[in-house]
């Protein structure tokens, strides 16, 4: 079964966001192409903007800023381990200290679930879509599960709240082109290799990261309308003070297929 490894990072001290993103794409990305190991696909999502917590919070409840999220896809868990823990330490694992604040990385090992949307893009949109049916603005929504809710119930409650939010957010319902639920899989509990590779220290745990695609950055308001409707759901399932979302530009580093 395919597995996706999502790593959200922020830039190291002394770097601007532009410097960090250039390094990530052109230098670190080149390293990944040269020592691909078992990577099926490698996507970088460069952060344009985002929001953390709620307007009612007096301060952030954890380290908040993120400058990119990388998505590494593998055919299976052994392939991921072979890439993260090769016989000889990889250049990629040694390179992070030059651009990232590694101890504050957040990883999620996830399985994808495609969520149907009311208005998928019917045909390729030259100059806007990255590939057919996918928009040029990608929003990554990290939703922290409420501690009192079981994981299985949490996914059900989110899906119900998602559908209700789209009904109450007509702009988002019209403009959302694709939606993928990245659900934290059980093997995430065996994350020693990932912790060693990404140099994390006690990262927060996210059971769900939802990817939303829109045509252009100008449609960011559609997601905002949806997100506000989602937070108004009367059923308690998320800790919104520890949740966040990122407006990103998707950049393909490795992908052999047309999807």
TrEMBL record:
The domain of life is Bacteria
GO molecular function annotations of the record: oxidoreductase activity
Give a single Pfam family match: EthD
Q: Pinpoint the EthD domain residues.
A: 12-101, 151-238
Gene3D superfamilies, sorted: 3.30.70.100
Q: What is this protein called?
A: EthD domain-containing protein
> Organism, per UniProt?
Thauera aromatica K172
């Amino acid at each position: 079964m395919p597995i996706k490894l999502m790593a959200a990072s922020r830039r190291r001290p002394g770097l601007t966001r532009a410097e960090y993103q250039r390094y990530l794409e052109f230098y670190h990305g080149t390293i990944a192409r040269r020592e691909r190991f078992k990577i099926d696909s490698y996507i970088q999502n460069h952060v344009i903007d985002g929001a953390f917590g709620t307007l009612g919070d007096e301060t952030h409840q954890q380290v908040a800023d993120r400058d990119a999220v990388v998505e590494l896809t593998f055919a299976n868990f052994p392939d991921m381990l072979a890439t993260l823990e090769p016989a000889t330490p990889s250049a990629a694992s040694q390179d992070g200290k030059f651009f990232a604040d590694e101890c504050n990385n957040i990883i999620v090992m996830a399985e994808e679930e495609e969520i149907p949307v009311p208005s998928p893009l019917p045909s390729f949109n030259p100059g806007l879509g990255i590939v057919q049916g996918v928009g040029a603005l990608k929003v990554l929504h990290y939703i922290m599960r409420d501690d009192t809710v079981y994981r299985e119930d949490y996914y059900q409650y989110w899906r119900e709240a998602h559908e209700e939010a789209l009904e109450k957010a007509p702009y988002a319902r019209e403009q959302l082109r694709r939606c993928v639920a990245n659900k934290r899989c059980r093997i995430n509990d065996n994350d020693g290799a990932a912790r060693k590779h990404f140099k994390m220290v006690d990262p927060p745990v996210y059971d769900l990261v939802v990817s939303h695609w829109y045509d252009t950055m100008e449609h960011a308001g559609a997601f905002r309308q949806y997100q506000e409707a989602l937070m108004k759901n009367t059923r308690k399932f998320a800790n919104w003070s520890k949740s966040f979302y990122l407006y990103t530009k998707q950049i393909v580093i490795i992908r052999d297929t047309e999807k």
